[in-house]
Amino acid sequence: MMNTIEILKKYWGFDAFRPLQEDIINSVLEGNDTLALLPTGGGKSICFQVPALSKEGLCLVISPLIALMRDQVESLKKKNIPALSIYSGLSFFEVKRTLENAVHGNFKFLYVSPERLETNLFLEYLPGMNINLIAVDEAHCVSQWGYDFRPPYLRIAAIREHLPRIPVLALTASATKEVQDDICDKLVFKNDHKRFQKSFERPNLSYSVFNPSSKQNKLIEIFKNVQGSGIVYCKSRKRTKEIADLLKMNNINSDFYHAGLTNNVRTTKQESWIKNETRIIACTNAFGMGIDKSNVRTVVHYDVPDALESYYQEAGRAGRDEKKAYAVLLFHKTELDDLEKQSAIRYPPFEEVKNVYKALVNYLQLPSGSGEGIYFDFDINDFVKKFNLNIYTVNYSLKILEQEEFISYNEQIFLPSKVVFTVNKDELNDSEKAFPDLEPVIKGLLRSYEGIFDYPSAIYENQLAGFIKKDVTLLTADLKRLEHHGIIEYHPQKDKPQIQFLRNRVNIEDFAINQNNLSGRKIAFEKRVQAMISYVKTKACRSKTVGNYFNDVSAMPCGICDNCINEKSVLVSKIEFENIIAIIEKLTEKVPVHSNLLLKSLNTFKKEKVWKVLNYLHAENKISITEKGLVSKRKRI
C-alpha cells in the first residue's frame, strides 16, 4: 500500500497536507475515534478518503444530503477511485445490487444516509463488508442542541455494535463546545478519543456588517466596487428573483436559485454560475452545499440569519482560493427585533402541532394505522389554503414532526424516474412487432437496466436518450406511449417537495411529543439567536467573535474586518491626544459644555478620536458627563 503522502500526490496532485489534515489522518490510522472541526473549504473529505485508501477494505461514509453524496462519488470516480452510494429513490433491486458490489467488488467507499444503517437488508450485508473506517460527515446533525439536528443521526451509534473495533471519524465545519461534546457522547466515542480543531480564522476573508438606509443601493455599490463571482443569500424565494432582477437592471450579470425550482432548472443555473457564465447568484440557503468553487470573491447576506453556524458556513464560501474576499451582512434594526421574537413562532404550542398533524393526515387521506415508508407529493400552499392555517405555524410544526420522527419533509428530494415491464417476454416480442418505432426504447431499457423485467428500476432519461441517440423530449413521449399500451409502468421523476411518513398514522388522542427535548431545542435556538445579534452589534473583531463562539480560544484580531479597520482609523497619536485634551480643558475651564459643542469645536479631528479621549478622561475620573451630555472638568486634566 502507498503511504498517505503518495496517495495525496497521486489522486489530488498535492505535495503536502493542509494544517491538521495529517494529524487527523494519523489519529484515524492509529485506530482512534476522532472529531475533526475544519472550516468550510478546509478539506474535510481528504481526512477520511486518504486513510481509507491507505488500508485494505471499505470506508463507510454517512452523509445527510443526496446531492453531496453524488458530488463526492462522482469526484472519486473521476480520480479512478471506485465508490458507491445508496440514497432515497433507489429500488430494492438497485440497493441490493449496490450492497453486493460493496461486499464482493473492489470498491473503496460506500456512501449511505443514516436511515439506511438500520434496514434489515443493510445489516444482512454488513458482516461481509470489510469496513476499515466509519466517517460521519456533517456530524453536528447528531446534536439536538445544534442548528441542523437530524434525528436519524442519533441512531448511527447502533452500527458500532456490529463494528466494535472500527474507528469513527466525525467531521463538521461548525460546532460550539456544547455541540462538540454532544457529538462525542451520541457517537459513543471512547474515552481516549482525539479532537482536532483548526482555527476559525480566515486571514483573507474580510467580514463587514452594514445598516444602510437602502439595502438595494448598498448591494449595487458592493458589486460595482468588488469584481468577480458572488452569492447573495436571501431568506425568501421571492426575494431571490427580486435581487437578481435588481442586479440585472444595473448591468450586473445575475440569476436566482431556490428549492422551488425543478431539479433540471436548479442544475442548469448552478452549472452556469460554476462556469462563470453567471456572475452573481441570488439564492436561499438551498444553494451552496457541496459546491466546489474556489474563486468566489463576495458573499452577501441580504437578511440576517438566525445562527452564526449557518452564517459562518455560507460566508465561508467566499475566498477558498485564499485570495482577498468579502463576507458582507446587511441588516435593519427591525430584523434584530424580529429575530428575538422567532422563538415563539418556531416552537408553536403542542396543541398547534397536534392540529397540523391532524390536518396533514386528513389532507393526504391517510387511513389510521397506515402510511409508514410512503412518499407523498406535498404542496404546502395548497395545504395551508384548504385548512385555513398559518404558513409559519405549519412550517415549524412540520419541522417538529420531523424531529420527533413522525415524518421526513424534504423540499429538495430527488426521486428518479422508475420503470418496470408489465408484460412477459412473449408479449414483449409481440409489442415490438406491433410498435416497431418503440423498439429502440425497449432495447435501450433492457440493455441499460439489469433486472428491469422483474423489479421497478430507477432510470435516468438523459443517460438513456444519449445511449439510444434520441432527443430526451421524444424519449419521454415514447415512455408514456409504452405505458399507454400497457407494456411498462412509468413513474416520472419527482423533484417536488415530498413528505415521507416514518411511522403509521396515530390516532389523534394518542398523539404525543417529547416536551423536554422540545424545550431544550427552544433554549438552544434562543442562545444561537443572541449570539447572532451580538455578532451584528459587536465593535470587536468579527473574525475573533466567530472564533470565540466556536471555542477557538487562539483567535486573534484579523485586522481586515470593518471593526478592525475602524479601530485602526481611530488610533490617537500622542500629539493628537495632547491637543484634544488641551482644547477640552480650555472649553470646560469655567462652565460645563455640551458634548455636541465640544465635537463641533474639535471638528479638525475625527469624531471617533474625540470620543475616545472623552471616554478615557471620564474613566480616569477627570471629567464628568451627565445624561444630557454636559461635560464638566473635575480636576486639572
Keywords:
637 residues, alpha/beta, Rossmann fold, Arc Repressor Mutant, subunit A, 5 domains, seven-stranded parallel beta sheet, six-stranded parallel beta sheet
Explain this structure to me?
The relative contact order is 0.09. The radius of gyration is 29 Å and the shape is elongated. Strands 3-4-2-5-6-1-7 form a 7-stranded parallel beta sheet, sandwiched between helices. Strands 8-13-12-9-11-10 form a 6-stranded parallel beta sheet, with helices on both faces. It has a 3-stranded antiparallel beta sheet with strand order 14-19-15. It folds into 5 domains: 4-197, P-loop containing nucleotide triphosphate hydrolases (Rossmann fold, 3-Layer(aba) Sandwich); 205-331 and 538-558, Rossmann fold, CATH 3.40.50.300; 339-414 and 497-524, Orthogonal Bundle (Arc Repressor Mutant, subunit A); 417-491; 570-633, Arc Repressor Mutant, subunit A, CATH 1.10.10. The protein has 637 residues and is an alpha/beta fold. A hairpin with a 4-residue loop joins β21 (623-625) and β22. The longest helix is centred in the C-terminal third of the chain and has 23 residues, at 515-537. It contains 25 helices and 22 strands.
Level-1 CATH class name of the largest domain: Alpha Beta
Shape-level CATH architecture of the largest domain:
3-Layer(aba) Sandwich
What would CATH call the homologous superfamily of the largest domain?
P-loop containing nucleotide triphosphate hydrolases
How much of the sequence lies in strands comes to: 5-15%
Output the structural class: alpha/beta
Q: Which fold name is given in CATH as the topology of the largest domain?
A: Rossmann fold
Strand order of the largest sheet: 3-4-2-5-6-1-7
- In DSSP terms (H or I, runs of 4 or more residues), the helix count works out at 25
Question: Ranges with pLDDT <50 over ≥5 residues?
Answer: none
**Major sheet, described briefly?**
7 strands, parallel
Work out the radius of gyration. Answer: 29 Å
- Overall pLDDT, averaged? 90
The residue fraction in helices comes out at 40-55%
Net shape:
elongated
Distance between the termini: 75 Å
Q: Any idea how many domains?
A: 5
Number of strands: 22
